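User: If only I could read backbone structure tokens as easily as an amino acid sequence. Underneath my words sits a plain record pairing an amino acid chain with its backbone structure tokens. This is the protein in question:
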Amino acid sequence: MDVDSGIISKMTTNVGRVSEKQDVDAAIGSDGLTAVNPGPTESGHIHPAADIGGAAVLLNVGERIGLLPHLSEGAVVSAKFLAQTLDLPESSLVEYLQALTCAGLAECVSETRGLYRASSCFEEMLHSIGYVSWTLNANRPFVEHAREFFVSRSEARARYHRDGHQIAITSQWMGAEDFYPEARRAIFAAQPKRFVDLGAGSARLLIEVLLEFPKSTGVALDISAKACQAAHDAAQRVGVTDRLEVVERSIESVASDPGILEGADVIHGGFVFHDMLPHDEPTFDRVLHNSAEALAKTHGRMMVTDAAPFVQNPRERTFSAAVSFLHHFFMGRRLLSEEEWSGKFRSNGFTAIECTRLAFPTGRLFTAIKS
């Protein structure tokens, strides 16, 4: 028996009639086998679950050792450079890169010089495994300690917390195709002069806006010191530090101190507002209200990306159920439906609300203005 592409193939030694030794020698391949019956994969069957599972473990290893940011389609990188940069043995990195190459996720440009680059399917597969990695890695404490949550949610919530880095990186993998593009399109269409991103993380989206509109300025607000430092570093690399203000504060602080919203004509919040519900709904409302007041002065708009709970259409229902259950049961969060979001915007001063359903199952982009 041999395992090939995750599928067990049966091998046989009785293929055709072999009567002479030279015929036997000719029939036997380099591995000593007379013949191998093609398994389902070789005969045209594709097993995406097996491919995604294999890619998930390989690419998550690469993320943990810090290699993935150096590997992108078109960019050639050497194992020697990676060894020096990551402070890891070059021989180990070569083994890993060879595994990626065998998996079709990387290409060897020069074996003698140890040069590699990502394959054409690298980004697509990274996007696919983002869903698996978010559900099982970013939410690992909930899965591993599920019994404790079922016995006492309040005690388990106080004890077990998700890894913020895993949330950020897996969300980036999922969102690269399924929610960032739509938010980017809508923001670019608004041609912001001053863009405020609430819960900006490493300010990736905001920096793209600044690069697209050279006269624009922006504010990146995030509670994480690590994320704020990453935003500073990213802005410095592309030369926009003079137009980007990074503020290390919580989104809740905007309720009592809305100064950072002054002059904004686009205010964005990506998957951050639900963290205030249901325990701090008055603060949630005040942030929306202060945003509406600031945008009324510039005739601007607010854009909020968030998840709708337990969506029932066939395309979204499975992943939506997982997202909704994780947020409600394990985190104690309340996700708002499309109708509830519309009501919240209107009750806090906005007069026109538009909802866009994203490729990301359960994702919604709300655009609100105060006329």
